[in-house]
Amino acid sequence: MPSPEKEFEAILLEAIDESLKSMLGESGKELVYYQLKNSFGLRKENVPEKPELFSECLYSLFGLGAKIIEATILKKLCIKLKIKYEENKDIKFADYIKSMAKRE
Amino acid sequence: MYSFSNIFPPLIAGTAFASSILALARYWGSLKEHFSLSWLCFAIGLGLWFLGEASWAVYTLYLGIELPYPSIADVFWLSGYIPMLIALLLYVKAFLKVLPERVIYAITLAILVLAVLMLTVLAAPVFEAEEDLAVIFANFAYPILDTVLLYLAILGSAIFYKGKIGKSWLFITAGSISYTIADLLFSYTTTYGMYYCGHPLELLFHLGYLSLILAFHIHVKEL
């Protein structure tokens, strides 16, 4: 049986994958992962360890548009974790992820 | 100059169409994905604009017929705006929420002021010229459609300007500015009978296509 941390990481990766696909399409999703690996040296499976780097990658590509992608990921994650999504503009994406990881 | 004025536009419009096809090939997923749809619309729009330029060149250079205004070329150009507007709308709509309301209002107000100014400049000469309805429609349709295109392009630039694809949006905006000024001048000069093949204002149309080519190239390169 996987540890709660591993389980959370798998759910987060699923939420990221599905959100990127729904917003950018399959090709757009792959391009984000490509940028992540090539420009930030981060593999897709390591995103749960460094969500701030993933966030930086989204901003470097989409500017303010990254906020919408992040919000979509967080909403999807909350649905998967069966918790209520509370929009908070003061909390950064990475901090939100970390706080949810602790809750789990 | 006459030949250049007729040969160059289909070449540069064709290049813009080709660059949109390359972008479509890169980003295509399925019709259900709205970004795929957006790139498909860019390609259709630029394809129609290319047909507009090509039909103008075929009529004037090969058939030796002076096209009336509006003509079949205008049908292609004007219908090309519909997919172009849908393309920009699909892209911008998905991200619009990130812009503060005051920014959206400021951009909307600026565009409305610009539209009113343009219509004011055009209204008197167009109505004084007592042209038929099709000419009046074309004289107003181009600047109005350009303004809507410019509006969406500016919104896109405001959303993405800090990101890598922001450069691409700045070129789309630059292209929209070029088309807006070019079409305004075209409507004005044709109304006063001052327009001729090879008029310097045509450079602005070329600049518009060039900006779109760069926009698509940068988008593909950066993402």
Describe the fold and architecture.
The complex is a heterodimer of chains A (104) and B (223). Helix content of chain A is 73%, strand content 0%. By secondary structure, chain A is an all-alpha fold. In chain A, helix 1 crosses helix 2 (51-62). The longest helix of chain A is centred in the first third of the chain and has 37 residues, at 4-40. Chain B is mostly helical and 223 residues long. Chain B has one domain (2-222). In chain B, 83% of the residues lie in helices and 0% in strands. In chain B, helix 1 (2-27) runs parallel beside helix 7 and helix 3 (72-95) runs parallel beside helix 5 (133-160). Chain A binds chain B through residues 23-28, 31, 35, 59-68, and chain B through 26-30, 33-36, 94-95, 97-99, 158-166, 222-223.
Topology:
The complex is a heterodimer of chains A (104) and B (223).
Chain A: H1 4-40, H2 51-62, H3 66-81, H4 93-103
Helix pairs in contact in A: 1-2, 1-3, 2-3, 2-4
Chain B: H1 2-27, H2 34-62, H3 72-95, H4 101-128, H5 133-160, H6 164-191, H7 202-222
Q: Please give the alpha-carbon distance between the first and last residues of chain A.
A: 16 Å
The CATH homology group name of chain A: Protein of unknown function DUF3227
Low-confidence stretches of chain A: none
The largest β sheet of chain A comes out as: none
Tell how many strands the DSSP assignment of chain B holds.
0
By DSSP (H or I, 4+ residues per run), the number of helices of chain A equals: 4
Supply the number of helical segments of chain B: 7
Key features?
heterodimer; A: 104 residues; mainly alpha; Non-ribosomal Peptide Synthetase Peptidyl Carrier Protein, Chain A; 4 helices; globular; B: 223 residues; 7 helices; 83% helix; 0% strand
Compact summary:
The complex is a heterodimer of chains A (104) and B (223). Chain A is an all-alpha fold. Chain A has helices spanning 4-40, 51-62, 66-81, 93-103.
